[in-house]
Structure formats: C-alpha cells, structure tokens
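Dear Dr. L.,

I hope this message finds you well. Following up on our conversation about the binding site, I have prepared a predicted three-dimensional model of the protein together with zinc ion. For your records, I am including the exact sequence and ligand specification that went into the calculation, followed by the structure tokens. Please feel free to forward this to your student if that is useful.
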Amino acid sequence: MAVREIVVVPHPVLRAVAKPVKDFGLELQRLIDDMIETMRAAPGVGLAAPQVNVSKRVIVVEYEDPEAGIPHVLYAVVNPKIVRFSKETEWGVEGCLSVPGVIGEVERASEIVVRGYDRHGKPFNLRTDGWVARIFQHEIDHLNGVLFTDKAVNIQRVSPELAAEMDRV
Ligand SMILES: [Zn+2]
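The resulting structure of the complex is given below.
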C-alpha cells in the first residue's frame, strides 16, 4: 500500500466524469488499498478516485462517532449509484481534501440507498443516513465532476489548522 498524492483544484481530473470500472483485478485492488491509506493519512473520512488522479468510479468511506452512537464503518464501493434519495434534507458544513482551506454549508438528502459493487465485484445495496449519507453524496459527486463548492452556501476561508480538525472528504 502507498499514500498517493491528493490533487487539488483546479486540476482538470476533478471536473471529469469518471469511467465505470469493468476489471476487478490487481490494479483495482491496489487502487482501493492506496485510497484507504491515503484517506487515513490525510486524514479524511472519504475519498474518491479522481482525488488521487484516477478517473474511475471508486470511492472509500470510513467514519465513526461513538458519542453519537455511530459505529465504525469502512466501505469501498465500485461504480456506486444513489438509487433513492429521501425527500427530507439536512444542512451540514463540509470541507474537501481537494479544495483546501474552504468550508461551506451544503443541503443533502437525509437518507439514501446506494447500489454498487464491493472490491471483488459482488453487487450490494446500502441504506444509510445522517453524516455517513452526506459523505457518500459528496464522494459520488466527485465521480461526476461536481465539487461541494458548486452547491454550498456561506462559503468561508478557514485556516489550514482549523480545516484539519474537520471531517474532510
Ligand atoms: Zn471532496
């Protein structure tokens, strides 16, 4: 495993529509392992392949909040698609590893169902809500060339120290 460089705006890969994965071989396994290591090193709670300059539809998400009763989860999802959005939405403050020093408030669906494949090509559905659902929506936007700053209000510059304390994705 290796920590890869995280690309930042205005790198064009962040604006490209990422390509579906068809081959679940060694290259994909390496990519996922490296993405998990890169996310942890950042540190962050989610990462999309375009953020490491690979224009493929792969995301990783790792989160826990014991005080809020959210257990540790680690997902690697290939070709993820959100197949259901709740009508209910919630606002939350987001930051992004590829948009350093900026935060903003984004409205997201409160609950979603994600359909995708695990790293070995097995299909699965996942229903999730709250902060984890927000991370998934942020990462899947990355696969479509969308950044949180496209959707955010009250965008503010923050110091790198403050940004580092946030759950960046
Ligand atoms: Zn991001």
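In brief: The chain has one domain: 12-164.

With kind regards,
A. P.
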